[in-house]
């Protein structure tokens, strides 16, 4: 046993020494990555302890020199890649590791992997597309809500969402000849019924006049706007109503783009900064400071607008949030 222990120490030492000069080649594609990791001959017998996130090498080649090439060819949907949308770019993060011992023992070598791609233009549909959940509103305006696909290029083809993945919720107001308006989500809740009653059990998503509370509990956020009249809530799926039909109820408000205050805003919590940020003007993020207390209107002009603002209660669903292992079964049963 003692001999094996020392052997393990020697192997780790050899690996760390060779890995500091690791020959790692990363090729990023649209939805996948191909990595070639050249390792020393001493490490070839231990290639099963090499990982890309949660994935082992998809192939191992032993070269004539005795060295090895560990190949990782996986989609971003595999291996527990972390996806981050920031500005006009999409980032996929993961790590190459060597783990001589099983978790929770730490890896002896870690190499960060990052793939960056340009975020596609957000889908702008014909407003009368029957799949986008068109609903009428006040003042001659029409409000819309839809669940987009992962690439934000169209309406999602399934309403089954794996737990922890993201649900891009798109909302817009059709203005026609009206003056330019800013669309806001004043309040959103999840419920297991398409209609809300006074005693309905709900799961709060956005509250306090535009504060995205799910950005505090999870990784949800508002995506940068492409149009003032549309907004995308990049909502991380949650355990509420797991396996049941879930409906998202939102109060949508069409507002003056020049008048933002504590009662008319879109704020999300940025964990990296430990603070709330205003979607439409980060320099005015002080308007979001009330998200931890109570938000009320302080603008005189805002109070004047309040009397003729346009709002509409919209419902999206049903959505079915499932454990990952159950997603395929739901898709098969619905096909």
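^ structure tokens above, recovered residues below v
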């Amino acid at each position: 046993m003692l001999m094996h222990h020392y052997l393990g120490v020697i192997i780790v030492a050899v690996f760390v020494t060779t890995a500091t000069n690791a020959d790692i080649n990363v090729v990023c594609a649209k939805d996948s990555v191909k990595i070639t990791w050249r390792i020393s001959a001493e490490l070839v017998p231990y290639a099963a302890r090499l990982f890309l996130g949660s994935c082992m090498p998809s192939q191992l080649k032993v070269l004539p020199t005795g060295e090895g090439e560990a190949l990782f060819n996986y989609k971003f949907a595999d291996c527990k890649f972390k996806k981050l949308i920031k500005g006009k770019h999409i980032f996929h993060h993961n790590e190459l590791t060597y783990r001589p011992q099983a978790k929770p023992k730490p890896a002896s070598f870690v190499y960060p992997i990052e793939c960056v791609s340009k975020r596609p233009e957000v889908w702008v549909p014909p407003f009368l597309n029957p799949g986008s959940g068109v609903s009428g509103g006040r003042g001659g305006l029409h409000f819309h809500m839809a669940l987009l696909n992962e690439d934000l290029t169209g309406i999602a083809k399934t309403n089954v969402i794996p737990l922890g993945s993201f649900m891009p919720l798109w909302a817009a107001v059709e203005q026609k000849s009206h003056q330019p308006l800013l669309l806001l989500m004043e309040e959103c809740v999840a419920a297991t019924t398409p209609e809300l009653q006074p005693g309905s059990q709900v799961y709060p998503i956005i509250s306090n006049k535009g504060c995205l509370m799910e950005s505090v509990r999870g990784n949800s956020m508002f995506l940068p706007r492409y149009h003032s009249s549309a907004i995308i809530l990049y909502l991380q799926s949650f355990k509420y109503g797991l396996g049941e039909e879930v409906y998202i109820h939102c109060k949508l408000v069409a507002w003056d783009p020049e008048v933002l205050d504590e009662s008319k805003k879109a704020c999300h919590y940025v964990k990296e900064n430990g603070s709330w940020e205003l979607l439409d003007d980060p320099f005015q993020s002080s308007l979001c400071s009330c998200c931890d207390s109570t938000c009320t209107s302080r603008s005189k002009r805002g109070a004047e607008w309040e009397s003729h603002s346009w709002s509409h209660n919209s419902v999206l669903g049903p959505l079915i949030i499932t454990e990952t292992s159950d997603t395929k079964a739901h898709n098969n049963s619905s096909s």
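The radius of gyration is 25 Å.
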